[in-house]
Design goal:
Belongs to the RutC family. InterPro entries: RutC-like_sf, YjgF/YER057c/UK114. This is RidA family protein. This protein has one domain: 2-Layer Sandwich (60s Ribosomal Protein L30, Chain: A), CATH 3.30.1330.40. Helices cover about 25% and strands about 30% of the residues. It contains 2 helices and 6 strands. It has a 6-stranded mixed β-sheet, with helices on one face. Strand 4, helix 2 and strand 5 (about 105-110) form a beta-alpha-beta unit. The radius of gyration is 14 Å and the shape is globular.
């Protein structure tokens, strides 16, 4: 594989819960692993309403972007898994607050269940010309 692979890790987002990195940077593209709404200190939020869970998952994503020297405006593609499509409107409102005018490609995928009983998981691709 051409180019170096850099593993991205920050204590400002939930630690990886298995054999994977929070994110991987390769040839200027940041591949962010699925972010569940686990707080950076490791506390779970599975008992919280969807809106709280969505904000925590997005906070994790933003912290990982920052650790990689990127920002929300560098997001290229976001995939969101929600346990129940009825959460789509709430997610869209929260997501818009985080991203402002930036509109990366996105998919919202309804699923029957997520790990630990969470209601949302977010993965993303990001890149910027200044990143190598």
């Amino acid at each position: 594989m051409a180019g170096e692979i850099e593993l991205i890790h920050t204590t400002q987002a939930a630690a990886a819960g298995g054999h994977y990195a929070q994110a991987v940077l390769h040839q200027g593209v940041l591949y962010v692993s699925g972010q569940l709404p686990v707080r950076a200190d490791g506390n779970h939020s599975v008992d919280q309403p969807f809106e709280v869970q969505a904000a925590i998952a997005l906070d994790n994503l933003m912290a990982i972007l920052d650790a990689a020297g990127q920002s929300p405006s560098d997001l290229l593609k976001v995939t969101v898994y929600v346990a129940g499509i009825e959460h789509w409107p709430a997610f869209d409102r929260i997501y818009a607050r985080y991203l402002g005018e930036h509109r990366p490609a996105r998919a919202v995928v309804p699923v029957p269940a997520l790990h630990h009983g969470y209601l949302i998981e977010i993965e993303a691709l990001a890149g910027s010309e200044g990143t190598s």
